[in-house]
Amino acid sequence: MKIYTKTGDNGDTSLFGGKRIPKSTLRIDAYGTVDELNAQLGVVRALKPLDEIESILEQLQNQLFVLGADLATPMDTLSSKIQRIQQDHIDNLEKIIDQIETQLKPLQSFILPGGQLVGAQMHVARTVCRRAERLVDALGRKEDIGKFPLAYLNRLADLLFVVARYANILAGIAETKWNDGPPNES
Predict the structure, then answer these.
(1) Is 101 helix (H, G, I), strand (E, B) or coil?
(2) Which residues are CB-neighbours of 176 under 8 A, at least 6 positions away?
(3) Terminus-to-terminus CA distance in the chain, angstroms?
(4) What is the assigned CATH class of domain 12-103+130-170?
(5) Longest dimension (CA), the chain
(6) Domain segments of the chain: what residues?
(7) pTM score > 0.85 for this model?
């Protein structure tokens, strides 16, 4: 099978179920951003994070494929092949967040994104996730997408934040607190 089909050359693409829509639609933008997030997590994995972070990222990448397929499949499409994001996916994210937070000091102020490379790239992943969340919210206000994709992305962004913090803590990198005061004069 060839990688190119030429069916999208005029700006349309197929959803699961066969319906063709313009590539510029909100649905395509939403699941395309989920795909971008998945690729960003692949970048983090390429940086060879510690095993406890690596296993979380692999699990998340697999779940993002489920989410992407879910968003690429209109709710009225009948298919036993398509998994949809469910409450248990969200519950699993919360469980991981709770486990990691036991290793972190509670935040007393905002922190600046950054740290070592894995932590900094996790912050980038978090921002891509928040963009996906905004797009999925907009899509859900126009079309039925089910009740779990938006909640999943909201919780996932929280998880990515705590993983970023955890990666920096494991690397011995102190968090930089946001300084909301006047700039220092030199």
Answers:
(1) helix
(2) 111, 112, 114
(3) 63
(4) mainly alpha
(5) 65
(6) 12-103+130-170
(7) yes
Contacting residues for 22 by C-beta, under 8 A, at least 6 apart: 11, 12, 13, 28
pLDDT at 76: 84
- Residue 181: what pLDDT? 63
Residue 175: C-alpha distances to residues 44, 55, 75, 100, 107 (Å): 19, 24, 43, 16, 10
Instruction: Let me know: does 149 contact 139? Beta carbons within 8 Å.
Output: no
Amino acid at 51: D
Q: How far apart are CA 164 and CA 118, in angstroms?
A: 7
